[in-house]
Amino acid sequence: MVWIILALVGLIGGTIGSLMGLGGGIIVVPALLFLASYSILEITPQIAVGTSLVIMIGTGLSATIAYVKQKKVDYKSGLLFFCASGPGAVVGAWLNRLVDTEAFQLLFGVFILLMATVLFIRKYLKKRPYVKKRIEREYIDTEQNLYTYGYNILPALSVAFMVGMLSGLFGIGGGSLMVPAMVVLFHFPPHLAVATSMFMILLSAMVGSVSHMVLGNVNWLYVLALLPGAWLGGIAGAALNKRLTSEKLMIVFRLMLIVIALRLIYEGIV
């Protein structure tokens, strides 16, 4: 029964993670901690994070392959962001050792709620005049909308480092921060932001998971149970993403973040 539950957690986490560009850890880590609170699993926050990062390699790979076929991945931006997010993931993995269960859940919940708030005010922030960037690109989506987006290198690398550090610390892949940052700060179109985020998450998860393996923070039996569902979920999420308009995608994203955040904050306080 436990294996079936874990397989479903992997499938749901992979699907939602791929659909929103989150990587799936934002579902998998809270789910593992929730199961542990009812003694269904024996797992610490550190093991939950390390196991989640390994799972995100599968989700990230399957989702990235699907998004590559849809021609939605900005490889150059993804690789540039990874140059900072990779080292950040290593730092986050080491910081993870210092956080206990209650503090972990509370901090995680507040962080996610903050990201949801940013997304709610995104449309107001985008009304500000577009500022010329050092790197600029154009993208035409399936609805034939033309987007101009770009960024200055140093601020972009700073954001990416923070994303990587939070990925290693919370085991979430960093997409819950990177997608809003790309949309709000760099004016990425939502679908391109999600796909590029998954590509970056794949690379960051590889680095972060190795750090957690060295620290002994990976339960390989749980990985075996979660991975098949996560792989299929990555493919399913990319397919669903293709069917949603940009605005619908952001609405689902915001609501999902709020529900998860409130649950984590409650668990951290009680």
Short recap of the structure:
The protein is 75% helix and 4% strand. The chain has helices at residues 2-20, 25-37, 45-69, 75-95, 101-120, 122-125, 153-170, 175-184, 190-214, 220-243, 246-269; strands at 135-140, 146-151.
Please describe what this structure looks like:
It is found in: Cell membrane; Membrane. It comes from Halalkalibacter akibai (strain ATCC 43226 / DSM 21942 / CIP 109018 / JCM 9157 / 1139). Belongs to the 4-toluene sulfonate uptake permease (TSUP) (TC 2.A.102) family. Keywords: Cell membrane, Membrane, Transmembrane, Transmembrane helix. Pfam families: TauE. This protein is mostly helical and about 270 residues long. It has one domain. The chain is built from 11 helices and 2 strands. It has a two-stranded antiparallel sheet with strand order 1-2. Helix 3 packs across helix 9 and helix 5 packs antiparallel against helix 11. It is globular. The model has no long low-confidence stretch (mean pLDDT about 80).
N-to-C span: 28 Å
Largest sheet: 2 strands, antiparallel
What is the mean predicted local confidence, pLDDT? 82
The residue fraction in helices comes out at over 70%
Structural class: mainly alpha
Portion in strands? under 5%
Number of strands: 2
Radius of gyration: 17 Å
Order of helices and strands: HHHHHHEEHHHHH
Query: Tally the helices: what do you get?
Result: 11
Strand adjacency order, main sheet: 1-2
What's the structural domain tally?
A: 1
- Spans of at least 5 consecutive residues with low confidence: none
Report the principal-axis shape. Answer: globular
